[in-house]
Amino acid sequence: MKAVYKHPRGMPDILPGDIGSWHRIEKAVRSTMHSYGYEEIRTPLVEKTALFERGIGEATDIVEKEMYTFPDRKGESLTLRPENTASCVRAAVEGGLLQPGSVHRVWYQGPMFRYERPQLGRQRQFYQTGAEVYGVAGASIEVELILMTAELWRRIGVFDAAQLEINTLGTAEDRAAYREKLIAYFESHTDQLDEDSVRRLTKNPLRILDSKNPDMAKLIEDAPKLADNLSAESKAHFYEVQALLVANGIDATVNNRLVRGLDYYSHTVFEWTTDRLGSQSAICGGGRYDAMLEDFGAKNTPGVGWAMGMERIVALAEALSKDQPEQAIVDGPDAFVICTVKDEAAYPLIVTEQLRRKCPALKIVQNTGAANLSNQLKRADKLNARCVVLIGEEEKANQTVSLKLLDGKNETRTLPQNEAAAVLSSILGS
Predict the structure, then answer these.
(1) Distance (Å, rounded) from C-alpha 230 to C-alpha 171?
(2) Mean pLDDT, the chain, whole residue set
(3) How far is CA 202 from the centre of its chain?
(4) Of 70, 155, 259, 379, which has the most beta carbons under 10 Å away?
(5) Mean pLDDT across 396-401
(6) What is the pLDDT of residues 76-89, one digit of tens each?
């Protein structure tokens, strides 16, 4: 009995019938990044495990439960990247980008890996797009990144279904003082904590505030508020963020429980959410992470960024019925090359390659496998081709081709082979 192979759980294929949705959104991402002056960066799928333990935080769920970690042949511990901010910072430091006074705006896209329970919008291999800025402090750059996401939602067509939540985590000093108060509060109510919260209590108590356990909702609601423990400087920073958002017409809800799942954030954090995807409501999140750059050796270099889950954006666009895949991808070929000359392979290949070189914007497909003219025309019709390039005995002998538009009129024109590209471009609008 032959083995039946299936994709690993939580790592689905994206088939040709679905890829058009992704291409449309990726095109919107590229155009938006270009508009804002961000340059693309690409990092390895695999990093040294210590990078994520240090960058993300050893007490986070990602590091403790979700990473794909393995030894290489020399015994060094490696990890499939679970997120890309730490990798981008590592690349920027290692690549010498973060010189004093320099500013870098970068963006990325690609697969990430986390061992989670697969469900709609949450996979074990998932795709993220993100943007990072190094070397700029202050509220303005944080708001620029939020405005960029808003513009991206407009270009994709999901802006009306997205809501912005913001919070401030203050400075490291603010959080250290608040952390002690939070630990004292929860220690006095340990009988009400679930297993995860007990584990987090001494390692990462702020993460308890992000618990989705309904039995702990009242306990969390009554917990000390970080907003009441911020320095005047931190409060002023957050007020400026809010004022700049208002000035730019962006509505935002302050969510005091929003702490994000990663240890490296400070000051502003934000999430875009939607009510159209069920429990997986977060579609994008980010914030400021100055401390990570300091830890990685980039002294006095601020950092801020965001990341969005591509699967959730694709699902949201489809849920809103606004997903119009790229025409060149989901539609049939612009030209379908067919040959009726028995055992002839060279001439149709030559014609097809010349057409592709001279008409790079057109999608040109050559029929493969022997078939009579009627069957080849049926195949072109089934593929929804716009035009047929026909090569028969007469065309081969005279070094010509016949172009037949499949527009209902079925007009046919025969012309020299070296003129076919110009005519094809003209009639098909290339």
Answers:
(1) 8
(2) 91
(3) 34
(4) 259
(5) 92
(6) 999 999 999 999 99
